[in-house]
Structure formats: structure tokens, C-alpha cells
Design goal:
single chain, about 375 residues, mainly alpha, 16 helices, rod-shaped
Length: about 375
């Protein structure tokens, strides 16, 4: 039931998890940067950025025939201007990097907080099942079946509201329960209850009234406490408010969870971050150029291009776009991605846990289990 994944460091060097790792999520950004970086670098080394210099000299007062020394001087001046251009952009790039890291850090921390708030508020029926086990009491063998059916119905209504609410915000769960018939097939809903909710079995918009089953559960709890016959207590002799509180807590968690998904951050917030990162990436192509020209030290062209490999810049790209992908992944905790929470499987697990809880509560009422179980 739980995913047993290797450590994050092991996943980094594992081919099985390469696609979902930081390299698999950012490699195309690194490839585009290297491609554009070397276009500019090769043009710089081959003096393709200085092709307009001779044309400007022809319009000057100098004679049309230039000497080799003059050409060398023009070449050196052009290379110097290009180096100064790269240097100026590098200074601006340093300032922009500090601003970008602050903006990106604030953005990612906000997304992480929203992600954790949603995940931590994902309710289950475990606490409600335990409260029912402690307060629902059958005073005779004849009431045992009624008490068991009462607990089953309360938990079923809880799972029904859980599924209806989260189907509004989770695409996989919505596809699984696309109509009332799917709820009936899952035994979360009966046809009479579907009629009470005024939804058809083929109605694809059947999750609007998701809180109504919880109101049914509260009404059942109230009836189980107040319905007393011939001086006997009901199925809940006292403290029925504790059961109501547990049901209301499930409702509040579901409501808050739905509000997070139905009222996301303004789109301009995300757009500003992506525009800033893409602008930073384009500027980095020029600002991070190696200013070493192969003619400066009479080195070979191939060796100079090889030594100009932007290793440090690639690491920065890996981290910046890696953090950006983290935020992109955490925006929707209940989607279709590898990292997202599978609500369909979670529902099955919650139903199984509720069944086991009721089953063991029934076993615990056996006299042999209750009679001083701590003694051998």
C-alpha cells in the first residue's frame, strides 16, 4: 500500500527514475542553452561578430586599401568591444541572478506551503470509526446488528462525501466516478439516495451536493441519541456530540481542501516567475560567454572552444529550472503525475481500513477478548 522508493540520491543515478529526476525534468533546458551558447561562442571565436567593421572603414577618410597592421588593429578593437559587451552583460546578469533567486525562492516556498496544507488536510474516516466504536453501544444481542449497520452507514456516508468532494478537484478521481452509477457500483450510494440527491445515474455533474451525505450522518447520530424507547437508551447513550464533531471535522477539512484547489493563486503570479526565468536564461547566453579568444594566446580554435564549456552555468540552469519544476509539480497534488497522490487508491485503502475497524470492534465485544486480556 505504501510506495517503497530508494533514496533521492540513489534515484539521481538510477536509469529507472531518470525521467522523474532533476536531470530528466530539465535536460531540454540545458540542451537549448548549450546549443545557443555555442552558436554565440563559435561566432565570437571566428570573428563573425565583427564582419561589419571593414564596411564602416570604407566610408571613412582612410584610403580604400588597408594594410595588414590596420586589419589586425581593427580586429583587436572589435574583439575588445565584444569582450566589454560580454563583461557588461555579466555584471547585469549577476544582479539579476540575485533578484531571481529571491523571487523564485519566495514563489517555491509559497507553492510548497500550499501543497503541504492540502496534503495535510486530506481527511480519512479513521478517527470517526474509533469514536463510533467507543460511543455506539448495543445493549442486547438484538441490537448488535443495528449497531453494526449504523456504524457502516455513517462511515459509508463519510466516504461518499469524501469521494464526491475530491472528484471536483482531482481529474483521476473524477474520471473514475464520472456519474452516479459509478458511486452505486462502488456501493457508496444507493438508488434511493441518488433520488434523494436529485441526480440521475447517468448524471455527470453529481458531485455538487457533496456535503449532503454528511448531513444525513449527523441526522442519524441525533436520532440514535434521542430515540429512546421504554426507558432504554439509544444506540449512542451519551456524548453524541463527539460523533457530530468528528463528522464536522471531516466536512471542514474537505471544504478547506476544495477551496485551495478551486481558488488557486492568480495566474499573473506564475506568469511573472516564468517570464523572469526565461528572461534570465536568454541573458545568460550572452553574459556567461567565455571572453578568452583563441588568438590571444595563440591557442588552437578547437581547444579554446573546448575550454569554454559552461559547466558552472549548466549547474545554475539545473538548479533554477529544477526549482521551477518543483513548483510546477506541487501546484496540483492530486493530478496524474508520478509524484501526485492517487486518490483512487487512497479511497480503496480508506474503505478497507473502515471495514477492518468495524470488524475488529465486533470481535472485541466477544467476552473472551474483554475478560482481562492482559493476563495469560
Amino acid at each position: 500500500m505504501e510506495k517503497c522508493l530508494p533514496s533521492p540520491i540513489s534515484q539521481l543515478f538510477s536509469l529507472e527514475y531518470l525521467k522523474t529526476g532533476i536531470i530528466g525534468q530539465t535536460w531540454y533546458y540545458l540542451l537549448i542553452f548549450c546549443f545557443l551558447y555555442y552558436i554565440v561562442q563559435i561566432g565570437y571565436q571566428l570573428d563573425l561578430l565583427c564582419t561589419t567593421i571593414p564596411e564602416k572603414n570604407q566610408t571613412s577618410s582612410k584610403p580604400p586599401t588597408t594594410t595588414t597592421a590596420t586589419l589586425e588593429h581593427e580586429h583587436d578593437a572589435c574583439v575588445k568591444r565584444t569582450k566589454d559587451y560580454f563583461k557588461n552583460w555579466a555584471a547585469h546578469f549577476s544582479t539579476m541572478t540575485r533578484l531571481l533567486t529571491f523571487l523564485l525562492g519566495f514563489y517555491v516556498s509559497t507553492i510548497c506551503k500550499r501543497w503541504w496544507d492540502q496534503v495535510s488536510k486530506l481527511p480519512d474516516a479513521d478517527n470517526l470509526g474509533l469514536v463510533l466504536g467507543g460511543l455506539v453501544w448495543a445493549q442486547s444481542e438484538a441490537e448488535a446488528d443495528a449497531a453494526r449497520d449504523f456504524k457502516k452507514t455513517i462511515l459509508r456516508y463519510t466516504h461518499l462525501s469524501w469521494t464526491m468532494c475530491l472528484a471536483r478537484i482531482s481529474t483521476p478521481l473524477s474520471n473514475k466516478f464520472s456519474s452516479a452509477q459509478e458511486y452505486i457500483d462502488k456501493k457508496l450510494l444507493t438508488k434511493s439516495e441518488a433520488e434523494a440527491l436529485k441526480i440521475d445515474t447517468d448524471d455527470r455533474d453529481c458531485s455538487t451536493l457533496w456535503w449532503v451525505p454528511l448531513s444525513w450522518a449527523v441526522s442519524m447520530v441525533n436520532d440514535a441519541f434521542n430515540n429512546k424507547e421504554k426507558g432504554k437508551d439509544g444506540l449512542i447513550p451519551k456524548d453524541h456530540k463527539d460523533v457530530v464533531s468528528a463528522i464536522c471535522k471531516v466536512r471542514n477539512d474537505l471544504f478547506n481542501l476544495a477551496e485551495y484547489r478551486l481558488q488557486p493563486l492568480p495566474a499573473i503570479y506564475t506568469q511573472a516567475v516564468w517570464v523572469a526565468v526565461y528572461g534570465w536564461a536568454l541573458i545568460s547566453i550572452v553574459a556567461n560567454q567565455s571572453r578568452m579568444h583563441y588568438r590571444d594566446n595563440e591557442a588552437s580554435l578547437a581547444m579554446t572552444i573546448l575550454l569554454s564549456f559552461p559547466g558552472h552555468e549548466l549547474l545554475m540552469f539545473l538548479l533554477i529550472f529544477g526549482w521551477l519544476k518543483v513548483a510546477d509539480i506541487l501546484v496540483d497534488p492530486f493530478g496524474n503525475d508520478f509524484w501526485d497522490i492517487d486518490l483512487v487508491s487512497t479511497l480503496d485503502i480508506n474503505i478497507w481500513k473502515s471495514s477492518v475497524t468495524i470488524e475488529n470492534q465486533e470481535k472485541a465485544t466477544h467476552p473472551q477478548l474483554l475478560k482481562r486480556p492482559y493476563l495469560q
